[in-house]
C-alpha cells in the first residue's frame, strides 16, 4: 500500500508525457528534464495527451513504484502547461484523482503550521544558563490567579 507521509512532496508534470515510459524512462525524465532527484521519496504524477491515463512514480526504501490509472470514460482536469512541474498537497491530489477541477476550487484562508526546519549543530548545543534565563517569559499575572 502506498502511504504519503507529511514530508512527501507531490509533483505534477503539467505537460504531456509519453506514458509508454516505464521505470527507467520516468526516472530519466525526472532527473534530466526536470532536474529533480527521483529517489528522494517525492511523488511524481504524469498524464498522457488524452488526459485519461495517469502514471505515478514514487521511491520508498524498498524500491521504485510505478502505478497507473486509466479512466474508462471522461478525462482528468489537468492544469494548463506553464511550469514544467507544480506542487500539490495531498488533498489537492485526492481532488484531482476524484475528478474535481482544481481551477474551479479555491483554498480558504486558515492557519497552517509553518514547516519544521532541521536545527543546525550550533542550535542543538546545550544552552548556557544565562541563555536559558533570557528565553523564559515573565510570569503572567492573570495565569497566577487561576
Q: Could you name the key traits of this structure?
A:
146 residues; alpha+beta; five-stranded mixed beta sheet; disordered C terminus
State the gist of this model.
The chain is of the alpha+beta class and about 150 residues long.
Average pLDDT, all residues: 79
Distance between the termini: 49 Å
Taking strands numbered 1, 2, ... along the chain, how are they ordered across the largest sheet?
4-3-2-1-5
How would a textbook summarize the main sheet? 5 strands, mixed
Given as residue ranges, the uncertain stretches (5+ residues, pLDDT < 50) are: 128-139, 141-146
Structural shape: globular
Structural class label: alpha+beta
Number of strands: 5
Strand % is 15-25%
Instruction: Give the radius of gyration.
Output: 22 Å
Tally of alpha and pi helices: 5
- Please trace the helix and strand order, writing H or E for each element: EHEEEEHHHH
Helix content: 10-25%
Structure description:
Strands 4-3-2-1-5 form a 5-stranded mixed β-sheet. The C terminus is likely disordered. Helices cover 23% and strands 20% of the residues. The longest helix has 11 residues. A hairpin with a 2-residue loop joins strand 3 and strand 4. It is an alpha+beta fold and 146 residues long. It has a domain of 95 residues. It is globular, with a radius of gyration of 22 Å.
Topology:
Layout: E1 10-13, H1 23-33, E2 43-47, E3 53-60, E4 63-70, E5 85-88, H2 90-97, H3 121-124, H4 129-135, H5 141-144
Parallel strand pairs: 1-2
Antiparallel strand pairs: 1-5, 2-3, 3-4
Amino acid at each position: 500500500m502506498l502511504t504519503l507521509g507529511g514530508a512527501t512532496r507531490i509533483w505534477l508534470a503539467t505537460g504531456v508525457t509519453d506514458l509508454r515510459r516505464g521505470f527507467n524512462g520516468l526516472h530519466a525524465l525526472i532527473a534530466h528534464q526536470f532536474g529533480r532527484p527521483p529517489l528522494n521519496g517525492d511523488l511524481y504524477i504524469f498524464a498522457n495527451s488524452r488526459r485519461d491515463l495517469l502514471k505515478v512514480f514514487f521511491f520508498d526504501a524498498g524500491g521504485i513504484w510505478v502505478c497507473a490509472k486509466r479512466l474508462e470514460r471522461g478525462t482528468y482536469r489537468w492544469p494548463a502547461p506553464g511550469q514544467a512541474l507544480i506542487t500539490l498537497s495531498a488533498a489537492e491530489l485526492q481532488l484531482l484523482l476524484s475528478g474535481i477541477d482544481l481551477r474551479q476550487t479555491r483554498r480558504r484562508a486558515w492557519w497552517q503550521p509553518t514547516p519544521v526546519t532541521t536545527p543546525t549543530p550550533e542550535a542543538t548545543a546545550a544552552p548556557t544558563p544565562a541563555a536559558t534565563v533570557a528565553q523564559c517569559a515573565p510570569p503572567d499575572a492573570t495565569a497566577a490567579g487561576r
